[in-house]
């Protein structure tokens, strides 16, 4: 059983400075073991504001919090609470919460029987949104991995696990015969806005509308908080740049922009991922990293909106196999200012001889910030093993 974040001891045989990463999956997470409270009280009893402007932004330490887990989201309403997905004994992923040490989506008769992953909190703590896999009868299992979201819809659950609702029902081929008339579709990383009034997700189909291998779009919908039948309405489609690999990670703190990773410029390979800000009013986007040969993703903005934490294979880009880009990525964590300047490497998981080094091919994927801006729950994988890792900054 997993203990409370505050009670969790370090795992045995775990080095003080970071261990464990995945080699094949898109998004997972690795985590630390001892969580201190994210908020402290001032003399007036008020919550402290995020302190990122006073920090040096170096890694103080990192620990594994959960093995065989990934894709966390840190609750905004409670600094001692994280939701994540975990690989179950049946071979599928389910949604869990840390403090209760309880599976949210396991043995729920009204839920899809296969993968449930990429959970995200409503700011009130009342709901968790996630992607749930349809009952498909064919296809490569990697397509429905939590980092791909194939055959999935957007689902919503009460955070106590008492009720669940599908928010989308995409047309999707579930048998080989149906591929003659229907595409394979998927959704990825649904998350709430900071106001709780909207939900974003990435949505893809294969083949694309004009015969492309696949086609990615970004969806943003109004969330209708009906206690009997929550739903999404007014779904708006954003399709910046070319139609391959658009992964939306979060609304900015003011909910006016979307932080995403993708290959939006034409003429670039899929693995030339950059990080972008998409303005939701104008639909215009800005490329923050502008690196045509480097893979960057897993980006999250600090609670004060000043910094962006992300994964990058900078320094290892020549190791990419164009025939298998997802399975040949080495990546570490970096941080930069909101406008893409002042980039700084924070981990050296792939550097033999460094204290951070993890043997094998390590990938640094999506993270979630603690509300105080001083800790992150990280999605890491090494040698085929996923972990939830906590990274503490100073």
Textual characterization of the structure:
It is globular, with a radius of gyration of 19 Å. The protein is mainly β and 394 residues long. It has one domain: 6 Propeller (Neuraminidase). The chain has strands spanning 29-30, 59-67, 69-74, 82-87, 93-97, 102-103, 116-121, 127-133, 152-158, 164-166, 184-192, 198-206, 215-224, 231-238, 244-251, 257-263, 274-279, 285-287, 296-301, 307-312, 332-337, 344-345, 362-369, 375-382, 385-393. The chain is 0% helix and 40% strand. Strands 1, 2, 23, 24 and 25 form a five-stranded antiparallel β-sheet that branches. Residues 1-49 have low confidence and may be disordered. It contains no helices and 25 strands. β19 (296-301) and β20 (307-312) form a beta hairpin.
List the defining traits of the structure above.
394 residues, mainly beta, Neuraminidase, five-stranded antiparallel beta sheet, four-stranded antiparallel beta sheet, disordered N terminus
Topology, pairings included?
Blueprint: E1 29-30, E2 59-67, E3 69-74, E4 82-87, E5 93-97, E6 102-103, E7 116-121, E8 127-133, E9 152-158, E10 164-166, E11 184-192, E12 198-206, E13 215-224, E14 231-238, E15 244-251, E16 257-263, E17 274-279, E18 285-287, E19 296-301, E20 307-312, E21 332-337, E22 344-345, E23 362-369, E24 375-382, E25 385-393
Antiparallel strand pairs: 1-24, 2-25, 3-4, 4-5, 5-6, 7-8, 8-9, 9-10, 11-12, 12-13, 13-14, 15-16, 16-17, 17-18, 19-20, 20-21, 21-22, 23-24, 24-25
